[in-house]
């Protein structure tokens, strides 16, 4: 669980073009290496679960087969499947890291991945929230943000100054959104209009 949280926090930038639009950021490149390594490791542990005699072996087998098919040949035994994981393309692993691989792990490690219902855009005082963000910026806070919690709660927060945090110049137009509404942390720049209409991630 700790490794999953750490990977989500460290590697979220590889899923958002805002951090590496030209695909030439060396810091994001190093995060891709980390993400691929974690993906392979979690898949290998899933193979161990699928080929073992535990109660979740069948669930793990079905989850791996549904996502990777013959690319991970469980029918040929554990060693063959583990060797195949080492040969999987990095881009394929990254594509599946955000949702499918956590789902596979969840088949034998309950409660790692979960999906929650979207947050309703109604009953939130976006005008007041915008005022609080503007006030925070005036107080000198560089990265005030809207936080969407895993349970759907909306709050005001402040993100640390890190190289991968996108900059927002005019907080009356756009704002940082830190969302944990689907169990995976995301940091995005969204417009107040999208927040008000429920089009922002986690609100639609």
Description:
The protein folds into 2 domains: 2-106, no CATH class; 126-197, no CATH class. It has a 4-stranded mixed β-sheet with strand order 2-1-3-4. It has 204 residues and is α+β, with helices and mostly antiparallel strands. The chain has 8 helices and 4 strands. It has helices spanning 2-11, 26-51, 57-68, 78-87, 90-97, 100-106, 126-138, 192-197; strands at residues 144-148, 154-158, 174-179, 186-191. The protein is elongated and about 60 Å long. Helices cover 45% and strands 11% of the residues.
In short, what is this structure?
With 204 residues, this protein is α+β, with helices and mostly antiparallel strands. Helices cover 45% and strands 11% of the residues.
What features would you highlight for this structure?
single chain; 204 residues; alpha+beta; 2 domains; 4-stranded mixed sheet; 8 helices; 11% strand; elongated
How many domains, as an integer? 2
Order of helices and strands: HHHHHHHEEEEH
Task: List low-pLDDT spans.
Answer: 113-118
Mean pLDDT: 80
Helical fraction? 40-55%
Q: In angstroms, what is the radius of gyration?
A: 20 Å
Tell me what portion of residues adopts beta-strand conformation.
5-15%
Could you give a short account of the major beta sheet? 4 strands, mixed
Strand line-up in the sheet with most strands: 2-1-3-4
So what's the overall shape? elongated
